[in-house]
Amino acid sequence: MTHIYNFSAGPAVLPKEVLTQAAAEMLDWHGSGMSVMEMSHRGPEFMSIYKAAERDLRELLAVPDNYKILFMQGGGLSQNALVPLNLLGHKPAGATIDFIYTGSWSAKSIKEAGKYANVNIAASSTTSVPPQSEWRLTPGAAYLHMCTNETIDGVEYDFDGGVPAARQDVLFVADMSSHILSRVIDVSKYGVIFAGAQKNIGPAGVTIVIIRDDLLGQALPACPSAFDFKLVADNESMYNTPPTYGIYIAGLVFQWLKAQGGVAEMERRAKAKAALLYAALDLDDFYQNRVAPANRSRMNVPFYLKDESRNEAFLAGAKARGLLQLKGHKSVGGMRASIYNAMPIEGVQALVDYLNEFAGR
Ligand SMILES: *Cc1c(COP(=O)(O)O)cnc(C)c1O
What we know:
The protein is an alpha/beta fold. Helix content is 32%, strand content 16%. It has helices spanning 16-24, 44-60, 75-87, 104-113, 229-234, 244-260, 262-282, 311-320, 345-358, and strands at residues 5-6, 67-72, 96-101, 118-124, 143-147, 149-150, 155-156, 172-175, 192-196, 207-212, 287-288, 300-305, 323-324, 335-338.
């Protein structure tokens, strides 16, 4: 059988070791006689799974003690509403949220936030990250929202190690759905970080929220209780039933990440994988990537064939070689290779070999 490499943008590839372990534990977790799916979320077995997952994620991202980690449901998109619902309760009516618009995901965030607040686009570009010196911020804005890796447009923040310089007067909220755990970050620079799990963490259905604890308890009255960050935090993500199986798989991924050498090692690998792939795309004009080199995503690599009439032939040839899910997002067309933490460099090399073969090099 051809070796399969899955380049899906999400839900995406998971480490083989994790899936193998989950399969072995499917019917009987650690001699409990139960599948993880069948356990009470308040029982000692699941509580041990939950605590380990929380502790390992805290260790991997060096999350400071004054931050809470929430395991929620609803996906990354729901956070576009839940963040304003949770942060605007103590703000005057008509408060403004600043946004950096860098592509499709920040566009969705802007649209949703407009239901709850005034929105100001402080800077915009979909082929680069506007330099921080050019951001036109609103004095007294409730917060600044940024999508630090645009999954569709392939634009990733890359100044100051990928993290904007912290500003005392600006509260940063970051959607890190598609690159969390792929690079070292300084959590203390942010008020809120959120990420849907299905890109770099685990199965769809879990959403991670990391929030500085002084921001809890500021929800608007209309915020649904099950999505009130303070209630979720006070109940260790068990105000209502959490996505237990997804948390279990995420926990196995965290263990896998630790065994591989943690986030610094993932960053080293991501740099190597991205360099290999972009070099093949840049060799001549057969393929094109339109993002400014400094902001090219290490996780999501969109590219176009110069001759787009060959798109179907490219995808068919890729599939025949076991290179799956390379079709670009429907809104932008072309191709996209997502090379998350669980994609081995061998998979990127196989794609590069095919890129060269298809280009007749
Ligand atoms: C995938 C993604 C989302 C949306 O996640 P859902 O779970 O589908 O709601 C949000 N933001 C970014 C950057 C993403 O890549």
